[in-house]
Amino acid sequence: MTFQELQPKVTEITSNTTLSRDEKLSSVCQLLSDSIDYYNWVGFYFANQETKTLHLGPYVGAETDHTVIPFGKGICGQVAVSNENFVVPDVAAQDNYIACSFTVKSEIVVPLFVNGENIGQIDIDSHVLDPFTQEDEKFLEFVNEKIAKLY
Questions:
Q1: CA 86 from chain center: how many Å?
Q2: Which pLDDT belongs to residue 131?
Q3: Which pTM value belongs to this model?
């Protein structure tokens, strides 16, 4: 399924008034995981500005021990500080990568902004080397714009 075909499905999920916010987040994760073959782990992390930590929210994929990540640590922690998208074509080449699984080869993290504040991020791991393109980034920015309206 193309990103253009997925956009109305994301909008439909996020505007569904019968679902809770977490159900919407879980449904978006499931949709992306099911629809894009190289999205092998899809999840959200949310920032706690007081403790400078990220906390795992809804996700789809293998279980992870990384339920709390300090700002600055790993790819997700770096995005919490930089406020910029981070595409990692090969996690083995990253010094500050937190290994989740030997099957993870690449990662993309896109920050989630509400009223100009970085409140979290969408994190996607892939078992494929270098699959992420500018189209992935643009699509995930679209997803986060829809998610931001839930806050």
A1: 11
A2: 97
A3: 0.94
